[in-house]
Amino acid sequence: MQLRHLLLCSVFIFFVLYAPQPLLGLFASHFSVSPAAAGSLMTATMLPLAIAPLVYGLFLAKRNPLTILKFAMFILAISCIAFTYVPSFKLLLLVRFIQGITLPAALTAMTSYIGVTYQADELQRNMTLYIGSTIVGGYFGRMLAALFTDFLSWQSFYYVIALGLIIFAITIPKASKGANIHAAKSPLLYLKQLKDPLVLKLYGAVFCMFFCFAALLNYLPFILQDSFAITNTRDIGLVYSGYLLGALASIATPWLLRKSLTPWRLLTWVFVFYSLTMVLLMSQQLLLFFIAFTGFCGAMFVIHSSAAPLVNKISSAPASVTNGGYVSFYYSGGALGSLLPGLVYQQHGQVAFMTVLLLVCLVGFSLVYLAGKKTIRG
After folding, report:
1. Most C-beta atoms within 10 A of its C-beta, which of 27, 61, 62, 254?
2. Percentage above 70 pLDDT, the chain
């Protein structure tokens, strides 16, 4: 399978995950639910995303990831159509939960395919490109959902997503036997190999990183509405441009890694910057908030595009299990971040909300700092 094709699949898969996010205010109004309840549309997807990947990692260890990817994309296409027709908020949650069960199969399949197909510098470069595709999917999933809602209807974008998923799934080449992931025989051995303290520290830092990111991106429409009186879905979509501008920082990740003594050193300093942006995001000035939001997104993407290839290098577990664990910790953070800080926001507002995110971020900083010190001593 050509990498370009895989990246296009990734973009549409991430459309599915993030399209509801700028519409949470609309869903809250339409179904008469609270911001935290509306935010549970993301939690309903990220919770199974957090639990399922390790299982899928073990499952994929004996199966061709491209076959799994094709079936997952067909299921996601059907779920997108179903999402547009459900009449109640509870059924919306159910469809999102089904998407959450399906998405980790696709994500683990893609990262595993890259992990076993490429080596060394090529692995770093192609994993960075893959992460770039998730950024594109995340940005345009949010932006296009907002624009389609403003000019047509929110349902219309879901029809586009479903069509794209079907087209790209059909064109995935037939899996060859040689493309299977070969791994050890015992699943318990895979899990045992994941007990490496460096791997677990990195997983923990990734958990903290995405907890903060999912929280802010989830409740951004409500912050814009309450603090800056921005209610139009198109204008909310435009604020997400800071996401794309920040994402450009990930392009510089390979260069930053070459300039850093170790990847751990880079991660430590980027976590410091990530923390500083959260302080600035307490601002009530829209321009400063937007600049801080752009830096916040940039820091997250540099952490992500550094950590994903690093875990493949330091883990002795099979690629499918290593990446399954990474995705699991990543979306565990997202699942909790998309719900718990929302309860703080509802009760205490923007500053308290950002303070919670700052404290979680500092935990992530501590983990990479300690891992870096241990690596240097080793």
Report:
1. 61
2. 88
